[in-house]
């Protein structure tokens, strides 16, 4: 098997931002990505040029190639890598053939017209996609259904945020709600990452009778090690802050009022659908239960946000209306008259 460092050096000489680890099938970022980021992210990345300087455990350190957050030294290293890449391209051909591989197209390799990262790769053209574990599954798999719905939820929350920003320019004050929505969208990104990195729950046939709770208990394996309960409690605090100023809710309200409030009700219904898509994954033990809790609490937050928008815009809440008895009688009378009229017409002599 090819050495990892050789793979990494080959990727750098090709100007690539990633390569595939042959042992695991995982996609690994090259040093180039970390240099372009500009600082150590603290996640103990394999090819971190900063010596893991921001990893929380101070005992975990390596000799840095450049200083994290130092633009000067980072640019010098980037220039060095670019010179090495150009020298590689200038190497003479061997036996009439280039000693370099054909440049890949798409993703971090760039496109036909640009060397910058592009969103297309072509790897999903056959109806499959890759999880963060490196495993490829059909795009209609339950995990991708949940990820797609959470992504849709994030997008409709983005529309609600855009409405708030536009309204604030016309002197409507929504308090901290716009900032809270930015936090929500970021946490939905995290939720998608947890779903995209499911814990394996497969067992060997010989172990089917073993009662081992450790095998079935979820082990957080997404960004940050799982969805922290602090994020769920933050939603509850935000709900409390808005509710304190709102009139007491005593009846069902219709999902309308201002356009902004109506958009939040759309967000709420998509949120409920996202929750339904995550439940099977949690029941199977492959998704963080706190993700489901967060999305459940988020729907309550979005409902309260809808009420808050009507309140801030001085729009009255429209309550659910029961059908009145006289309305039923009026409908029944109209039906009877119509029926009698039809009977009379059928019995009338023809002219």
Automatic annotation (TrEMBL):
Instruction: Specify the superkingdom.
Output: Eukaryota
**Composition bias, kind Low complexity: at what positions?**
86-98, 339-351
Q: Which GO terms describe its molecular function?
A: ATP binding; corrinoid adenosyltransferase activity
Q: What reaction is this protein's catalytic activity?
A: cob(I)alamin-[corrinoid adenosyltransferase] + ATP = apo-[corrinoid adenosyltransferase] + adenosylcob(III)alamin + triphosphate
A Pfam family that this protein carries is DUF5522
Its keywords, alphabetically, are: ATP-binding, Nucleotide-binding, Transferase
**Residues annotated as domain Cobalamin adenosyltransferase-like:** 120-309
Q: Where is this region: Disordered?
A: 52-72, 85-134, 322-351
Its GO biological process terms?
Answer: cobalamin metabolic process
Q: Which InterPro entries match?
A: CblAdoTrfase-like, CblAdoTrfase-like_sf, DUF5522, PduO-typ
Function recorded in the entry: Converts cob(I)alamin to adenosylcobalamin (adenosylcob(III)alamin), a coenzyme for methylmalonyl-CoA mutase, therefore participates in the final step of the vitamin B12 conversion. Generates adenosylcobalamin (AdoCbl) and directly delivers the cofactor to MUT in a transfer that is stimulated by ATP-binding to MMAB and gated by MMAA.
Kindly state the subunit structure of this protein. Answer: Homotrimer.
The record's family statement is: Belongs to the Cob(I)alamin adenosyltransferase family.
Q: What is this protein called?
A: Corrinoid adenosyltransferase MMAB
Organism from which the protein derives: Seminavis robusta
């Amino acid at each position: 098997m090819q050495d990892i460092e050789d793979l990494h050096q080959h990727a750098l000489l090709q100007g690539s931002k990633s390569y595939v680890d042959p042992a695991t099938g995982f996609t690994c970022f090259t040093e180039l990505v970390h240099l372009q980021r500009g600082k150590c992210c603290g996640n103990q990345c394999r090819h971190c040029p900063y010596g893991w300087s921001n990893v929380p455990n101070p005992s975990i350190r390596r000799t840095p190639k450049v200083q994290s957050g130092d633009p000067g030294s980072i640019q010098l290293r980037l220039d060095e890598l670019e010179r090495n890449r150009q020298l590689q391209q200038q190497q003479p051909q061997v036996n009439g053939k280039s000693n370099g591989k054909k440049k890949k197209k798409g993703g971090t390799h760039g496109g036909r017209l640009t060397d910058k990262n592009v969103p297309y790769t072509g790897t999903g053209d056959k109806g499959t996609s890759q999880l963060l574990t490196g495993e490829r599954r059909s795009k209609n798999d339950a995990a991708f259904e949940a990820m797609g719905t959470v992504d849709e939820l994030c997008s409709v929350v983005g529309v609600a945020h855009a409405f708030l920003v536009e309204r604030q320019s016309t002197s409507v004050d929504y308090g901290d709600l716009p900032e809270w929505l930015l936090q929500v969208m970021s946490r939905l990104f995290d939720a998608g990452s947890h779903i995209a990195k499911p814990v394996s729950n497969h067992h060997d046939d010989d172990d089917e009778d073993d009662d081992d709770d450790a095998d079935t208990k979820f082990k957080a394996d997404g960004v940050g090690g799982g969805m922290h309960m602090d994020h769920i409690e933050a939603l509850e605090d935000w709900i409390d802050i808005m509710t304190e100023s709102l009139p007491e809710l005593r009846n069902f309200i219709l999902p309308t009022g201002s356009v902004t409030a109506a958009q939040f009700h759309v967000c709420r219904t998509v949120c409920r659908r996202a929750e339904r898509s995550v439940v099977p994954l949690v029941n199977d033990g492959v998704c963080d239960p706190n993700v489901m809790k967060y999305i459940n609490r988020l729907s309550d937050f979005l409902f309260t946000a809808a009420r808050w928008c009507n309140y801030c815009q001085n729009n009255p809440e429209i309550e659910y209306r029961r059908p009145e008895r006289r309305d039923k009688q009026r409908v029944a009378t109209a039906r009877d008259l119509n029926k009698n009229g039809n009977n009379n017409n059928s019995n009338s002599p023809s002219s």
